Protein backbone atom coordinates (compact mmCIF):
# COMPACT_ATOMS: atom_id res chain seq x y z
CA UNK A 1 0.00 0.00 0.00
CA UNK A 2 2.80 2.41 0.93
CA UNK A 3 4.54 1.78 -2.38
CA UNK A 4 1.40 2.89 -4.21
CA UNK A 5 1.04 6.03 -2.07
CA UNK A 6 4.01 7.82 -3.65
CA UNK A 7 2.54 7.22 -7.11
CA UNK A 8 -0.79 8.52 -5.89
CA UNK A 9 0.82 11.60 -4.35
CA UNK A 10 2.66 12.36 -7.59
CA UNK A 11 -0.57 12.21 -9.61
CA UNK A 12 -2.47 14.22 -7.01
CA UNK A 13 0.28 16.84 -6.92
CA UNK A 14 0.17 17.48 -10.64
CA UNK A 15 -3.63 17.48 -10.67
CA UNK A 16 -3.51 20.18 -7.98
CA UNK A 17 -0.96 22.06 -10.07
CA UNK A 18 -3.20 22.00 -13.15
CA UNK A 19 -6.31 23.02 -11.19
CA UNK A 20 -4.45 25.83 -9.45
CA UNK A 21 -2.98 27.14 -12.71
CA UNK A 22 -6.42 27.06 -14.31
CA UNK A 23 -7.63 29.26 -11.46
CA UNK A 24 -4.71 31.63 -12.11
CA UNK A 25 -5.51 31.67 -15.83
CA UNK A 26 -9.14 32.64 -15.16
CA UNK A 27 -8.04 35.20 -12.56
CA UNK A 28 -5.75 36.79 -15.13
CA UNK A 29 -8.67 37.16 -17.53
CA UNK A 30 -10.98 38.72 -14.95
CA UNK A 31 -8.70 40.77 -12.69
CA UNK A 32 -6.36 43.52 -13.94
CA UNK A 33 -2.68 43.21 -13.22
CA UNK A 34 -1.62 44.67 -9.91
CA UNK A 35 -1.93 44.16 -6.19
CA UNK A 36 -5.41 42.60 -6.35
CA UNK A 37 -4.34 39.95 -8.85
CA UNK A 38 -1.24 39.24 -6.76
CA UNK A 39 -3.41 38.89 -3.64
CA UNK A 40 -5.69 36.40 -5.41
CA UNK A 41 -2.79 34.39 -6.85
CA UNK A 42 -0.64 34.38 -3.70
CA UNK A 43 -2.44 31.33 -2.18
CA UNK A 44 -1.36 29.34 -5.24
CA UNK A 45 2.24 30.51 -4.76
CA UNK A 46 2.10 29.28 -1.16
CA UNK A 47 0.56 25.99 -2.28
CA UNK A 48 3.32 25.47 -4.84
CA UNK A 49 5.90 25.93 -2.10
CA UNK A 50 4.19 23.26 0.00
CA UNK A 51 3.42 20.65 -2.68
CA UNK A 52 7.01 19.30 -3.00
CA UNK A 53 6.82 18.18 0.62
CA UNK A 54 4.51 15.40 -0.61
CA UNK A 55 7.23 13.82 -2.76
CA UNK A 56 10.58 12.20 -2.00
CA UNK A 57 11.75 10.73 -5.32
CA UNK A 58 15.02 12.33 -6.44
CA UNK A 59 14.11 12.51 -10.11
CA UNK A 60 10.32 12.90 -10.14
CA UNK A 61 10.16 14.84 -6.90
CA UNK A 62 13.25 16.85 -7.75
CA UNK A 63 11.90 17.84 -11.16
CA UNK A 64 8.54 18.78 -9.68
CA UNK A 65 10.29 20.88 -7.04
CA UNK A 66 12.34 22.76 -9.62
CA UNK A 67 9.48 23.29 -12.07
CA UNK A 68 6.82 24.28 -9.53
CA UNK A 69 8.32 25.56 -6.28
CA UNK A 70 10.94 27.68 -8.01
CA UNK A 71 10.09 28.50 -11.62
CA UNK A 72 6.33 28.22 -11.23
CA UNK A 73 6.08 30.51 -8.21
CA UNK A 74 8.31 33.17 -9.76
CA UNK A 75 6.38 33.07 -13.04
CA UNK A 76 3.09 33.52 -11.19
CA UNK A 77 4.44 36.47 -9.22
CA UNK A 78 5.51 38.11 -12.47
CA UNK A 79 2.14 37.28 -14.03
CA UNK A 80 0.42 39.12 -11.17
CA UNK A 81 1.94 42.35 -12.50
CA UNK A 82 1.60 41.49 -16.20
CA UNK A 83 5.26 40.59 -16.60
CA UNK A 84 7.22 37.49 -17.46
CA UNK A 85 6.59 34.62 -19.88
CA UNK A 86 2.95 34.13 -18.87
CA UNK A 87 2.14 37.70 -19.94
CA UNK A 88 4.12 37.70 -23.19
CA UNK A 89 1.07 36.67 -25.22
CA UNK A 90 -2.27 38.22 -24.07
CA UNK A 91 -4.20 35.68 -26.16
CA UNK A 92 -2.44 32.66 -24.66
CA UNK A 93 -4.63 29.56 -24.47
CA UNK A 94 -5.23 27.56 -21.30
CA UNK A 95 -3.19 24.51 -22.41
CA UNK A 96 -0.25 26.71 -23.36
CA UNK A 97 -0.58 28.68 -20.12
CA UNK A 98 -0.39 25.43 -18.16
CA UNK A 99 2.71 24.34 -20.06
CA UNK A 100 4.54 27.65 -19.77
CA UNK A 101 3.71 28.01 -16.07
CA UNK A 102 4.64 24.49 -15.01
CA UNK A 103 7.64 23.70 -17.24
CA UNK A 104 10.92 25.47 -18.11
CA UNK A 105 9.42 26.74 -21.37
CA UNK A 106 10.15 29.86 -23.39
CA UNK A 107 7.65 31.28 -25.90
CA UNK A 108 9.50 34.25 -27.36
CA UNK A 109 13.29 33.61 -27.17
CA UNK A 110 15.44 36.73 -27.32
CA UNK A 111 19.17 37.17 -27.62
CA UNK A 112 20.22 39.99 -25.32
CA UNK A 113 22.06 38.85 -22.22
CA UNK A 114 25.14 40.82 -21.18
CA UNK A 115 26.64 38.16 -18.94
CA UNK A 116 25.42 39.22 -15.50
CA UNK A 117 22.35 38.32 -13.46
CA UNK A 118 20.99 41.69 -14.57
CA UNK A 119 21.56 41.12 -18.23
CA UNK A 120 19.29 39.52 -20.75
CA UNK A 121 19.01 35.92 -21.73
CA UNK A 122 20.74 34.57 -24.77
CA UNK A 123 20.68 31.30 -26.55
CA UNK A 124 24.15 31.45 -27.99
CA UNK A 125 24.01 27.77 -28.53
CA UNK A 126 25.77 25.79 -31.17
CA UNK A 127 22.97 23.96 -33.02
CA UNK A 128 25.06 20.82 -33.26
CA UNK A 129 25.45 20.78 -29.49
CA UNK A 130 21.72 20.45 -29.07
CA UNK A 131 21.02 18.07 -31.91
CA UNK A 132 19.97 14.50 -31.39
CA UNK A 133 23.59 13.48 -31.91
CA UNK A 134 24.74 15.95 -29.27
CA UNK A 135 22.32 14.59 -26.72
CA UNK A 136 23.26 11.02 -27.65
CA UNK A 137 26.89 11.85 -26.90
CA UNK A 138 25.88 13.36 -23.58
CA UNK A 139 23.87 10.27 -22.70
CA UNK A 140 26.87 8.08 -23.53
CA UNK A 141 29.12 10.26 -21.37
CA UNK A 142 26.62 10.05 -18.51
CA UNK A 143 26.65 6.25 -18.82
CA UNK A 144 30.46 6.31 -18.52
CA UNK A 145 30.22 8.56 -15.46
CA UNK A 146 27.72 6.21 -13.82
CA UNK A 147 29.95 3.23 -14.57
CA UNK A 148 32.96 4.98 -13.03
CA UNK A 149 31.07 5.22 -9.75
CA UNK A 150 31.61 1.45 -9.47
CA UNK A 151 35.30 2.19 -8.95
CA UNK A 152 34.93 5.12 -6.56
CA UNK A 153 36.74 3.20 -3.83
CA UNK A 154 39.85 3.43 -6.00
CA UNK A 155 39.38 7.08 -6.98
CA UNK A 156 40.70 10.17 -5.27
CA UNK A 157 37.96 12.12 -3.42
CA UNK A 158 38.48 15.08 -5.78
CA UNK A 159 37.94 12.82 -8.78
CA UNK A 160 34.67 11.61 -7.26
CA UNK A 161 33.50 15.20 -6.77
CA UNK A 162 34.41 15.90 -10.39
CA UNK A 163 32.19 12.99 -11.41
CA UNK A 164 29.40 14.53 -9.33
CA UNK A 165 29.80 17.73 -11.37
CA UNK A 166 29.54 15.90 -14.68
CA UNK A 167 26.60 13.91 -13.36
CA UNK A 168 24.72 17.06 -12.32
CA UNK A 169 25.41 18.94 -15.54
CA UNK A 170 24.65 16.17 -18.02
CA UNK A 171 21.73 14.80 -16.00
CA UNK A 172 19.98 18.16 -15.82
CA UNK A 173 20.54 18.87 -19.49
CA UNK A 174 19.14 15.50 -20.55
CA UNK A 175 16.10 15.77 -18.28
CA UNK A 176 15.29 19.20 -19.68
CA UNK A 177 15.86 17.96 -23.23
CA UNK A 178 13.15 15.35 -22.67
CA UNK A 179 10.81 18.03 -21.31
CA UNK A 180 11.63 20.24 -24.29
CA UNK A 181 10.86 17.46 -26.76
CA UNK A 182 7.49 16.90 -25.09
CA UNK A 183 6.75 20.64 -25.18
CA UNK A 184 7.62 20.90 -28.86
CA UNK A 185 5.51 17.88 -29.72
CA UNK A 186 2.50 18.92 -27.65
CA UNK A 187 2.44 22.70 -27.87
CA UNK A 188 4.99 23.79 -30.44
CA UNK A 189 6.99 25.50 -27.69
CA UNK A 190 10.71 25.60 -27.10
CA UNK A 191 12.55 24.75 -23.90
CA UNK A 192 14.43 27.60 -22.26
CA UNK A 193 18.13 27.07 -23.09
CA UNK A 194 19.30 25.66 -19.79
CA UNK A 195 23.00 25.36 -20.56
CA UNK A 196 25.26 26.93 -23.16
CA UNK A 197 28.54 25.00 -22.94
CA UNK A 198 29.44 26.26 -19.44
CA UNK A 199 32.87 24.64 -19.67
CA UNK A 200 33.80 27.40 -22.16
CA UNK A 201 33.04 30.26 -19.77
CA UNK A 202 35.80 32.87 -19.58
CA UNK A 203 34.61 34.62 -16.41
CA UNK A 204 32.16 34.14 -13.58
CA UNK A 205 29.83 36.69 -15.21
CA UNK A 206 30.00 34.66 -18.40
CA UNK A 207 29.41 31.40 -16.52
CA UNK A 208 26.39 32.52 -14.48
CA UNK A 209 24.94 34.94 -17.00
CA UNK A 210 25.39 33.34 -20.40
CA UNK A 211 26.02 29.66 -19.86
CA UNK A 212 24.68 28.03 -16.67
CA UNK A 213 21.02 27.52 -15.74
CA UNK A 214 19.77 30.20 -18.11
CA UNK A 215 16.12 29.52 -17.45
CA UNK A 216 16.67 30.49 -13.80
CA UNK A 217 18.70 33.53 -14.83
CA UNK A 218 15.92 34.71 -17.13
CA UNK A 219 13.45 34.46 -14.23
CA UNK A 220 15.69 36.05 -11.59
CA UNK A 221 16.33 39.09 -13.74
CA UNK A 222 12.76 40.50 -13.78
CA UNK A 223 11.88 39.25 -10.29
CA UNK A 224 14.99 40.40 -8.38
CA UNK A 225 17.68 42.21 -10.36
CA UNK A 226 15.54 44.76 -12.20
CA UNK A 227 13.29 45.71 -9.23
CA UNK A 228 16.30 46.15 -6.90
CA UNK A 229 18.14 48.22 -9.51
CA UNK A 230 15.11 50.45 -10.09
CA UNK A 231 14.49 50.83 -6.36
CA UNK A 232 18.03 51.94 -5.57
CA UNK A 233 18.91 53.83 -8.76
CA UNK A 234 17.14 56.98 -7.63
CA UNK A 235 19.04 57.31 -4.37
CA UNK A 236 22.48 55.95 -5.26
CA UNK A 237 22.64 55.97 -9.06
CA UNK A 238 22.26 53.05 -11.44
CA UNK A 239 25.98 52.24 -11.55
CA UNK A 240 26.17 51.80 -7.78
CA UNK A 241 22.78 50.08 -7.61
CA UNK A 242 23.75 47.31 -10.03
CA UNK A 243 26.33 45.60 -7.75
CA UNK A 244 23.77 45.57 -4.94
CA UNK A 245 21.22 44.08 -7.32
CA UNK A 246 23.70 41.38 -8.35
CA UNK A 247 24.28 40.47 -4.69
CA UNK A 248 20.51 40.43 -4.07
CA UNK A 249 20.02 38.13 -7.07
CA UNK A 250 22.62 35.66 -5.83
CA UNK A 251 21.12 35.86 -2.33
CA UNK A 252 17.68 34.88 -3.64
CA UNK A 253 19.27 32.10 -5.67
CA UNK A 254 21.00 30.90 -2.49
CA UNK A 255 17.70 30.81 -0.59
CA UNK A 256 15.96 28.89 -3.37
CA UNK A 257 18.80 26.36 -3.62
CA UNK A 258 18.65 25.80 0.14
CA UNK A 259 14.90 25.27 -0.18
CA UNK A 260 15.36 22.81 -3.06
CA UNK A 261 17.85 20.81 -1.03
CA UNK A 262 15.50 20.76 1.95
CA UNK A 263 12.75 19.32 -0.24
CA UNK A 264 15.11 16.58 -1.43
CA UNK A 265 16.78 15.69 1.87
CA UNK A 266 14.37 16.99 4.58
CA UNK A 267 17.46 18.06 6.53
CA UNK A 268 17.95 21.47 8.13
CA UNK A 269 20.30 23.50 5.88
CA UNK A 270 23.84 24.08 7.12
CA UNK A 271 24.23 27.34 5.18
CA UNK A 272 27.11 26.02 3.08
CA UNK A 273 25.12 26.24 -0.14
CA UNK A 274 24.12 29.82 0.68
CA UNK A 275 27.78 30.61 1.31
CA UNK A 276 28.62 29.22 -2.13
CA UNK A 277 26.22 31.54 -3.96
CA UNK A 278 26.98 34.59 -1.82
CA UNK A 279 30.69 34.04 -2.44
CA UNK A 280 30.12 33.85 -6.18
CA UNK A 281 27.90 36.92 -6.10
CA UNK A 282 30.64 38.90 -4.36
CA UNK A 283 33.22 37.59 -6.83
CA UNK A 284 31.05 38.60 -9.81
CA UNK A 285 30.77 42.13 -8.40
CA UNK A 286 34.54 42.29 -7.80
CA UNK A 287 35.25 40.84 -11.24
CA UNK A 288 33.14 43.46 -12.97
CA UNK A 289 34.70 46.26 -10.92
CA UNK A 290 38.19 45.13 -11.92
CA UNK A 291 37.12 44.84 -15.58
CA UNK A 292 35.79 48.42 -15.56
CA UNK A 293 38.98 49.71 -13.96
CA UNK A 294 41.23 47.88 -16.41
CA UNK A 295 39.13 49.02 -19.41
CA UNK A 296 40.58 46.32 -21.63
CA UNK A 297 44.20 47.34 -21.02
CA UNK A 298 45.13 43.81 -19.98
CA UNK A 299 43.26 40.77 -21.19
CA UNK A 300 43.75 37.22 -19.96
CA UNK A 301 44.13 34.67 -22.80
CA UNK A 302 40.82 32.88 -23.39
CA UNK A 303 42.21 29.42 -22.60
CA UNK A 304 43.69 30.62 -19.31
CA UNK A 305 40.52 32.51 -18.41
CA UNK A 306 38.36 29.44 -19.05
CA UNK A 307 40.65 27.23 -16.97
CA UNK A 308 40.68 29.66 -14.04
CA UNK A 309 36.90 30.14 -14.19
CA UNK A 310 36.07 26.44 -14.20
CA UNK A 311 38.72 25.75 -11.57
CA UNK A 312 37.17 28.36 -9.27
CA UNK A 313 33.61 27.09 -9.82
CA UNK A 314 34.61 23.47 -9.21
CA UNK A 315 36.87 24.12 -6.22
CA UNK A 316 34.28 26.26 -4.43
CA UNK A 317 31.62 23.74 -5.39
CA UNK A 318 33.63 20.89 -3.88
CA UNK A 319 34.06 22.97 -0.74
CA UNK A 320 30.56 24.41 -0.23
CA UNK A 321 28.01 23.05 -2.74
CA UNK A 322 28.37 19.28 -2.87
CA UNK A 323 28.53 18.57 0.89
CA UNK A 324 24.76 19.17 1.03
CA UNK A 325 24.16 16.56 -1.68
CA UNK A 326 26.37 14.07 0.12
CA UNK A 327 24.76 14.74 3.49
CA UNK A 328 21.30 14.20 2.02
CA UNK A 329 22.40 10.97 0.28
CA UNK A 330 21.06 12.33 -3.00
CA UNK A 331 23.34 10.17 -5.15
CA UNK A 332 22.62 7.00 -3.19
CA UNK A 333 18.90 7.48 -3.69
CA UNK A 334 19.39 8.43 -7.34
CA UNK A 335 21.29 5.19 -8.01
CA UNK A 336 18.53 3.16 -6.43
CA UNK A 337 16.13 4.74 -8.91
CA UNK A 338 18.57 4.18 -11.78
CA UNK A 339 18.78 0.50 -10.87
CA UNK A 340 15.02 0.06 -11.06
CA UNK A 341 14.75 1.93 -14.35
CA UNK A 342 17.71 -0.11 -15.61
CA UNK A 343 15.77 -3.32 -14.99
CA UNK A 344 13.00 -1.98 -17.18
CA UNK A 345 15.35 -0.89 -19.98
CA UNK A 346 17.17 -4.23 -19.87
CA UNK A 347 13.90 -6.04 -20.35
CA UNK A 348 13.17 -3.84 -23.36
CA UNK A 349 16.60 -4.42 -24.93
CA UNK A 350 16.46 -8.18 -24.33
CA UNK A 351 12.98 -8.44 -25.74
CA UNK A 352 11.62 -9.80 -22.49
CA UNK A 353 9.49 -6.80 -21.60
CA UNK A 354 6.16 -8.54 -21.87
CA UNK A 355 7.40 -11.90 -20.68
CA UNK A 356 9.27 -10.89 -17.53
CA UNK A 357 8.40 -7.27 -16.85
CA UNK A 358 5.21 -6.46 -15.06
CA UNK A 359 4.39 -2.74 -14.82
CA UNK A 360 2.12 -3.42 -11.88
CA UNK A 361 5.21 -4.67 -10.05
CA UNK A 362 7.77 -2.20 -11.40
CA UNK A 363 5.91 1.00 -10.59
CA UNK A 364 5.25 0.11 -6.93
CA UNK A 365 8.81 -1.21 -6.63
CA UNK A 366 10.19 2.06 -8.01
CA UNK A 367 8.50 4.00 -5.25
CA UNK A 368 9.07 1.42 -2.53
CA UNK A 369 12.61 2.61 -1.83
CA UNK A 370 11.34 6.20 -2.00
CA UNK A 371 8.94 5.43 0.81
CA UNK A 372 11.74 3.76 2.77
CA UNK A 373 13.79 6.96 2.47
CA UNK A 374 10.81 8.98 3.68
CA UNK A 375 10.43 6.75 6.75
CA UNK A 376 14.16 6.80 7.52
CA UNK A 377 14.36 10.60 7.61
From TrEMBL:
The chain crosses the membrane at residues 12-30, 36-53, 60-81, 161-183, 244-263, 303-322. It is found in: Membrane. One of its GO terms (biological process) is lipid metabolic process. Keywords: Acyltransferase, Lipid metabolism, Membrane, Transferase, Transmembrane, Transmembrane helix. It is a multi-pass membrane protein. Pfam families: MBOAT_2. Coiled coil: none annotated. The keyword Glycosyltransferase does not apply. GO terms for molecular function: O-acyltransferase activity. Belongs to the wax synthase family. GO terms for cellular component: membrane. This is Wax synthase domain-containing protein. PANTHER family: ACYL-COA--STEROL O-ACYLTRANSFERASE 1 (PTHR31595:SF46), LONG-CHAIN-ALCOHOL O-FATTY-ACYLTRANSFERASE 3-RELATED (PTHR31595). Residues 192-277 form the Wax synthase domain.
Amino acid sequence: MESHSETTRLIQTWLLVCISLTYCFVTGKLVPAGKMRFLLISPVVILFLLLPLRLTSIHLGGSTTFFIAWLGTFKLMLFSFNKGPLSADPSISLPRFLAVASLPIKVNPKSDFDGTPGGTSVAETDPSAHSARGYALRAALLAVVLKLYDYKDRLHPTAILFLYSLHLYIGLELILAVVGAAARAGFGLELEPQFNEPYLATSLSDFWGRRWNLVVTSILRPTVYEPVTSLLAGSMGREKAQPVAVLATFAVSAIMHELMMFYLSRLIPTGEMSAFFLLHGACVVAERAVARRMRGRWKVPRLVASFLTIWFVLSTGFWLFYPEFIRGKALVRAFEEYALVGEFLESVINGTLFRSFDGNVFIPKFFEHVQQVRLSQ
